[in-house]
Design goal:
The protein is of the alpha/beta class. It has one domain: Vaccinia Virus protein VP39 (Rossmann fold), CATH 3.40.50.150. Helices cover 26% and strands 20% of the residues. The protein has helices spanning 17-24, 59-72, 92-100, 170-180, 196-203, 218-226, 240-248; strands at 5-7, 10-13, 30-35, 77-87, 104-112, 129-136, 150-151, 186-189, 207-211. It has a 9-stranded mixed sheet with strand order 1-2-9-8-3-4-6-5-7, with helices on both faces. A hairpin with a 2-residue loop joins strand 1 (5-7) and strand 2. The longest helix is centred in the first third of the chain and has 14 residues, at 59-72. The termini are far apart.
Length: 260
């Protein structure tokens, strides 16, 4: 199978991961699963990605697709792999159940988006967070210090700038990659969308494979992956979000020793 995009260890396939993982990914090579599967929001957005529902985003269908992907990954993991999967709080038990068949679930992280979401503004609290299930195989330690389970300081992508309705900030994805992998490790995202995970892997000096079956997002994904970088993000800088923000502004490295 030929990738839609491939360069310098980053590959994106226009394919359903359930039908392609077996032939694309070599057994025993996956160091990290980092993904944002469809999880029952029937999400619609404002901005460039507006009014485009996510295919397979019904709650039951989303969990079923995620289970099938994990089944296909059964022989692809390294013995000490890590995994992160975003999920909505209402579907947390179902996604926990699906993920626990393949991995030891160690925690449910909470991404604090620091901004209110849609919903009832009078009788409900703000929907300003998302859950991230974290699991592993074996006992490979996390990198750096022991951080808290609250993921703060990673601004959500403004609706007007989103390439995909449920796009996650690259800074958050880069942080998770840096915590759970070493340079050259393989990161996979079976639900790549506009390739935010693949961009984060590229910025952090990791290899990555992504799958996206919905052709609406592929052109934008390939364009973001084609952009050249001056240098990868350093390993666990004081604030990964600051490093990514600096990169996006073209000033990640300005010639001063240790500058971010």
């Amino acid at each position: 199978m030929r990738p839609y995009f491939e360069r310098n260890g980053i590959a994106l396939y226009h394919a359903d991961a359930r039908d392609s993982i077996e032939t694309v990914i070599v057994n025993g090579t996956v160091d990290l699963l980092l993904t944002d599967p469809p999880y029952g929001m029937q999400y619609e957005s404002q901005g460039p990605a507006a009014s485009q529902n996510i295919r397979g985003d019904g709650a039951r269908q989303g969990v079923r697709v995620f289970r099938q992907v994990l089944f296909e990954l059964a022989h692809k993991w390294q013995h000490d792999a890590h995994a992160y999967s975003f999920c909505h709080w209402e579907g947390l038990p179902d996604f926990y159940d699906a993920m626990s068949t393949s991995l030891s679930i160690r925690n449910a992280l909470v991404w604090d988006k620091a901004a209110g979401g849609v919903g009832d503004t009078e009788c409900d609290y703000s929907r300003d967070f998302e859950c991230v299930l974290y699991g592993l195989r074996g006992r490979r330690p996390l990198n750096g210090r022991r951080d808290g389970a609250m993921l703060r300081g990673h601004r959500g992508v403004p609706s007007a700038k989103r390439l995909h309705p449920t796009e996650k900030p690259v800074s958050l994805l880069a942080y998770l990659i840096l915590k759970s992998t070493q340079p050259g490790h393989l990161v996979i995202d079976p639900f790549a969308g506009s390739a935010s995970t693949l961009e984060a892997a590229k910025l952090t000096g990791r290899r990555a494979i992504g799958f996206e079956h919905d052709e609406r997002w592929l052109e934008a994904a390939a364009k973001r992956l084609e952009q050249e970088i001056l240098a990868p993000i350093p390993e666990l800088p004081p604030r990964v979000g600051d490093a990514v923000d600096a990169y996006e502004q073209g000033s990640l490295f300005d010639g001063r020793p240790g500058a971010l």
